[in-house]
Design a protein that fits this description.
The chain is 45% helix and 14% strand. It has 337 residues and is an alpha/beta fold. A 6-stranded parallel β-sheet has the order 6-5-7-8-4-9. Helix 10 links the parallel strand 7 and strand 8 (252-257). It is globular, with a radius of gyration of 23 Å.
Amino acid sequence: MKKNIEIVPNIERLFGTRDENLQILEQGLNVNIELKPDTVQIEGAARDVARAEQVFTDFAHLGRSGQALAQGDLRSMLRVVTEDASATLRGLAEAGKQRSFGKRQVQPKSINQRRYLDAIEKHDMVFGIGPAGTGKTYLAVAMAVSALNNKQVNRIILARPAVEAGERLGFLPGTLQEKVDPYLRPLYDALYDLMDGERVDRYLEKNVIEIAPIAFMRGRTLNDSFIILDEAQNTTSEQMKMFVTRMGFNSKTVITGDITQIDLPDRRRSGLLEAMDILRNVDGLSFNFFTEEDVVRHHLVQRIVRAYDERSRSQQMSLELPQEAGEGREQEPPLQQ
């Protein structure tokens, strides 16, 4: 099937500076798109052509409404549209605008990121589990800022276990807060990226935003709050149980972690791993998982994560071999977490 449609304004932005967006559309929707003198010709199966045409229609609508998309955001949204038949360019753009993330508009860069944002909107407790660089923490903080801006909550509480990865808190100089601040720095970074610095400082001073180690949560009931627990793989069983029972009325909780980076001493069982097992069938919870395909840092990070995952799977398979199968050859010991 071939379909000719009118050329939309600023079509070069839709195609991308080197036609990179056009390649996403052609490969993701299995169509061929050709620019004619007065029209754009789309060729492919009827259903695929209709989806591609919808992208052009949505792009034209966004242009008429004055909503300009940065190239990075547009490219990410097109990837989501091509991967999820229920997603539209207009719907993603308007959802991002409605969420009111502060000084920055945040768009999901993968289908799993979109599902994660949708889950946070629909559920009171959400788990985001996956490797580094998949946006688990940043998107959770963005949703917290949105909820605060829209007066859905009165405060944001960000927590992290102060577990050392080779260091020792006792040898660090300064007060307790100064000792733990380095472990909480990623949360500060996300806040300052999403909000004006003066506003963040003012909210921190008035405890509208609170950033603290998880131990500071004990004995509290957190009402009207957006609560985030980051690096949850480094919580103990007792800490995780304590944290998930802090949530009060009109509150939302997001718990993020990477189960491949557990730094607990003495090989203690991770509270996140235990929660995944105990809470998986509890109504009202949402578990969301990310893979290396969702990594949004430098492209090398995605390859590095994949290499570590392949090594881990290979070692796991060798450990599961019957004992007699391993006789006569030396096996590598498992990596120490």
